[in-house]
Every structure is written in C-alpha cells, then in structure tokens.
Design goal:
By secondary structure, this protein is mainly alpha-helical. It has eleven helices and four strands; from the N terminus they run H-E-E-H-H-H-H-E-H-H-E-H-H-H-H.
C-alpha cells in the first residue's frame, strides 16, 4: 500500500464540503424532479438515490447515485450486487427515465458522490469505481492501482471521453462488464503519476484532470 497523500485528502474534504453547500439547491431540485416524474409516470417510480456496492482501495462501499432507470429494474442490481450496476441496466431499451436521460448526458447522476468523497470512501480524482467481480478480474490482469488508490469521481477515463475510440470502449465496458485494455491503461497512467509526483504536483495534476472532466460534462458528452 502506498502512503496516504494528506494534501490530496485535505483537498477532497474542503472541496466536497464546499460542493455540498454550493450544490445543495441543485441536488434538491434534481431530487424533486426525479420524484415528480415518478408521480406523473408511475411506471418510472422508484427511489431518488440509488446505492450500489463498489470497491475503493480494496474495500467495499455503497456508492451513491441519482436513480436514472425505472425503479423496478434496480431489482437486477439487488439480486447481483457484486456484478451488476445501474450503468449496465440503463443501456437496455426503454430502461432510462426522462430525467435519467438528462442526468446521464451531463453526468449529474454522479453528484451525490460528493458525500462519498467527504466520508473518505472516494476521492475527486482516481481510478474508476469497480463492481466486486470486475475488481477481482482486473486485479488478476495486473491492475494493482485499484487496490492501492481510492476510486475517483473524476479520472483520465472520464476526461478522455471526447476521444471517439475511448467513448466506444466505455460503451463496450458498460454493456459487457469486461474491462477494456485502453481504459486500464489510463488508470495505470494515473497510478504512475501518483507514485512519482510530489504532493503539490499531484494536487495540480488532479485539478487539471477535474477541469478536463468538467469540460466533457458541460458539453453533454455522457455515454
């Protein structure tokens, strides 16, 4: 295990607290709209916030997301929490709600994860959060960064979605549940920088990756 980056963790705490305060009106509005859609269209009804089991730094935790699919479809995730996720289900025809289409386009379904970051279960920049089965598979493939780093809300994989080939690779990952070599390479690139950069260098690099990810989000380039 690599040493804790205290500057990185301090940044996570401060920015997540500020984010929760600043984003609270937006979070409440989105929650209200999700609930209203369930009332107007009962077939889409379900919980506003959905929690899934993911692995971060080798430990399971409940990642928080706004629900984007019809509520009854979440039973698929509940039956197989180690290998299924809302991300897989939402690619099924008719699975996404109207709000779900909007949320996934701009990655707004990920906003509740600021609470995971504040709790220390995630970080702002790191490897993609993995389901338990995929985590075990990628460890066998040599992706040891998943064991040594916290999962990130942002990362090189998310920031690189403007690349059409990488976007197609991400879609394939969501549909099949299998890791893609190009995406694993991106996590490995970040891991190499994490190991060699000073705390301050890593902080500035994280801010750069966050800015790149936000640019993708604002352009509505969600998978």
């Amino acid at each position: 295990m690599f040493r804790e980056r205290y500057l990185k963790r301090t940044f996570d705490i401060i920015i997540s607290m500020i984010g929760i305060i600043v984003l609270s009106p937006l979070l409440l509005l989105l929650a209200l709209l999700i609930k209203l859609e369930g009332i107007i269209r009962p077939s889409t009804n379900g919980p506003v916030i959905h929690s899934e089991i993911r692995i971060s730094k080798g430990r399971p935790f409940g990642i928080l997301k706004f629900r984007t699919v019809r509520g009854h479809l979440l039973e698929i995730v509940r039956r197989n929490p180690q290998g299924q996720s809302q991300s897989y289900i939402q690619h099924k025809p008719g699975a996404l709600t109207y709000m779900g289409k909007f949320l996934t386009k701009y990655y707004l379904d990920e906003l509740p994860q600021v609470f995971n970051i504040l709790k220390g279960e995630m970080t702002f920049v790191g490897p993609r959060p993995q389901e338990a089965l995929r985590y075990k598979h990628e460890l066998k493939e040599g992706q040891y960064c998943l064991r040594d780093l916290r999962s990130g809300l942002c990362g090189l994989a998310q920031a690189s979605k403007r690349n059409s080939k990488l976007r197609q690779a991400l879609i394939e990952v969501h549909r099949t549940g299998h890791a893609h070599p190009k995406l694993m390479t991106l996590d490995t690139i970040y891991f190499s920088k994490y190991k060699k950069y000073s705390d301050l260098q890593l902080l500035f690099y994280d801010i750069k990756v966050m800015a790149m990810t936000l640019r993708v989000n604002f352009r509505g380039e969600g998978v």
